[in-house]
Amino acid sequence: MSIDSLRRSATATVSGLPQGFWWLWLSTLVNRTGAFVLTFLSLYLTVELGHSAWFAGLVVALHGLGGIAGSPLGGTLTDRWGRRPTMVTMHLAAAACAAALAVVTSAWAIATVVLLMGVAMQAVRPSINATIADMVPAHDVRRAYALNYWALNLGFAIASIGGGAAIFLGYRTLFVVDAIATTLCAVIVFLRLPETRPEARLDTQGEPVVEDKVSMLTVLRDAPFRTLVLLNLFVCLVFTAPWIGLPLTMADQGLSPSAYGAVIAVNGIVIVGFQLLVNKLTDKRSPVVLLSLSSLLFAVGTGATALAGSPVAFAATVVVWTIGEMIHVPTNAAATARLAPEHARGRYQGVMGMSWAVAGFVAPIGAGAIVGGPGPDVLWAVTFAIGCLAAVGYSLRLRKALADDTAGDGVGARDGDEQVGAAEIPEIASAAGIAGAPETTVAAEITGTAEGSAGSEGFDEQGGADAPAAGKSAVSA
User: Fold this and answer.
1) Is a pLDDT exceeding 60 seen at residue 11?
2) Is 168 exposed, middle or buried (0-12, 13-18, 19+ CB in 10 A)?
């Protein structure tokens, strides 16, 4: 492929989107460029304040717990209050928390601030995703989500490099910079981004149409969307596992923390360098095919980790599941927007965000427990099985709901579609040839919390393995 063709592809990828989207894109870039708190939080707690690695892991988990509450809260506020005020308020709340971390030192105060920060950071995401769905034409929504995700990872890469170079200034200085960047993000949204919440539809007599009330319970009763959330949770568990399991696996093979740093950096390099190309290659493809493909890439990439024995081999596995990440994240966001009624986009995005938050809370505990118990090979076998399960689930259960000619317009329009619940998981697992995998995985992840903490602690003392996991989970949600 020539330079000119690459340039034309890049131009086509970024052209044709409304101006408001690019202000939102800029706010995302600014926000993530200053995202130092989660990246360096575990190092700050252990190195600067002298807390144990166990406490550092607990605090990071509290951030994920806050996100579980923040996501539905943000979704409700997005629909009731509006996209713009929700974004501004939650960005300012996250900025206040970042600034507070530069001041507080007691264990209880730090834990409380990080919990509230998790609420605020996750609460803003439904409003961002709903805004993109509001302002971008339907045929460009997936591309817009991919571009916003690219900005998010570009900012995260800059923050990681900048934070490492500026660490001599002190962790508290980095937290203050985080607060300033997040405040600037709120200012950009307030000054340049219009409110996009759809106005009430009018009937033929010009009277407002009374929309069906949509509560969180209503969203959960939407069968195709509930299936999408469940399968995304499976993928999120697989995606989150390497951020804890990979450093522990490499340490178990005698590789240094610096080797892990170089391997995991491949994730950001691949996304920043190739997201636009992936967008071009996957544009106009079936969402079911893309979701199934991304699940298989996650399965193969994480499963192959059990076979790796050198930094180069580990880096190759990261490349595989990173390609899955680049395909899955924008496609899943676009599918969520497609299944949501216009007046309930915030709530739908909020429920979907909960799947990311739950995985961010459960997967680190489960991965640590499995590595510290049965061993790393079992962890990667489980992630392979769950990824395959998700791929089969997308193919069997969402083909009708996400078909190009049957794009649902609201909750009621899809009441007759196929649905999947807890009772149907074994059926999907059986089709994948891995019956019993989800139950085994869940049991392994819910039990043995103390064991998981102990499993993570040994590596944290060498390099603070929780920092990349925390930062990336925040990015991906």
Assistant:
1) yes
2) exposed
Ramachandran sector of residue 256 (left: φ over 0; alpha: ψ -120 to 50; beta: rest): beta
- What is the model's pLDDT at position 423? 45
The predicted model gives 180-208 an average pLDDT of 81
d(CA 349, CA 129): 7
pLDDT of residue 162: 75
Q: Which 3-state string (H, E, C) describes 251-281?
A: HHCCCCHHHHHHHHHHHHHHHHHHHHHHHHH
Integer Cα distance of 174 and 166 in angstroms = 8
What six digits make up the tokens of 392? 């089969």
CA atoms within 13 A on the CB side of 332: 34
Whole-number pLDDT of residue 408? 38
The long-range contacts involving 47-53, CB below 8 angstroms and separated by at least 24 positions, are 47/464, 48/171, 49/105, 49/110, 51/107, 52/457, 53/456, 53/457, 53/458, 53/460, 53/461
- pLDDT score of 1 more than 90: no
- 293 vs 423, residue with greater confidence: 293
> What is the Cα 468 distance to its own chain's centre?
13
356 in Cβ contact with 72 (< 8 Å): no
Answer for the pair 188, 26: CB distance below 8 angstroms, yes or no. Answer: yes
Backbone angles phi, psi at 208, to 5 degrees: -60, 135
CB 114 within 8 A of CB 62: yes
Contacts of 168 (CB under 8 A, 6+ apart): none
Which pLDDT score, from 0 to 100, does residue 16 have? Answer: 84
Beta bridge partners, 202, equal 208
pTM above 0.90, yes or no: no
Q: Please give the Cα distance from 257 to 472 (Å, whole number).
A: 18
Please give the mean pLDDT across all residues of the chain.
81
Confidence band (pLDDT; 50, 70, 90) for 445?
Answer: very low
* Contact criterion met (CB below 8 Å) for 343 and 39: no
Residues forming beta bridges with residue 208, ordered by sequence position: 202
104 falls in which pLDDT band (50, 70, 90)? very high
The residue type at 85: P
DSSP state of 340: S
